[in-house]
Structure to design on (171 residues):
């Protein structure tokens, strides 16, 4: 229940942030983003990250919310082990895909990138812990895994803030 409240609060904040961010991006249009990248001498890695992160951010928030709901359903016996494992696998695929695509380094987006990678690594570790709990039949509301996921979400939030700061400076 604590995780559900925590995730709900994070989800509400992130939803607001994402709606504002998307509205700003729609106003600018893709051609102005390409021009700003060229005008600011962004590296290829910066540009790659600039376009990779927003989709990852939306997907992460969505799957985190789905994961939280599925955990609660599983604890209430209104969801199966198979359903929870599917959400865990989907979450793991998302962060693995991000880690495979994220540039090794960037100039302008380095702080956001570092927090996002840290968050993805911590998320994978927490998901592995949750998967072990599910397979062993123990309660999925383990303090260790909850703390690990909270740390991952905190790093994710830091990556969002750093990304937003850089995007404001290059507009």
């Amino acid at each position: 229940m604590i995780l559900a409240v925590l995730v709900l609060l994070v989800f509400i904040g992130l939803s607001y942030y994402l709606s504002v961010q998307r509205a700003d991006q729609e106003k600018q249009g893709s051609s102005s983003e390409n021009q700003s990248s060229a005008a600011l001498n962004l590296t290829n890695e910066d540009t790659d990250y600039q376009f990779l992160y927003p989709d990852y951010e939306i997907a992460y928030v969505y799957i985190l919310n789905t994961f939280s709901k599925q955990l609660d359903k599983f604890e209430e016996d209104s969801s199966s082990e198979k359903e929870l494992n599917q959400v865990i696998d989907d979450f793991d695929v998302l962060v693995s895909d991000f880690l495979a695509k994220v540039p090794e380094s960037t100039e302008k987006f380095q702080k956001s990138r570092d927090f996002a990678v840290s968050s993805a690594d911590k998320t994978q570790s927490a998901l592995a812990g949750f998967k072990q709990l599910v397979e062993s039949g123990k309660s999925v509301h383990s303090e260790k895994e909850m703390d690990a996921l909270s740390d991952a979400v905190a790093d994710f939030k830091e990556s969002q803030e750093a990304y937003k700061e850089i995007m404001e400076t290059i507009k």
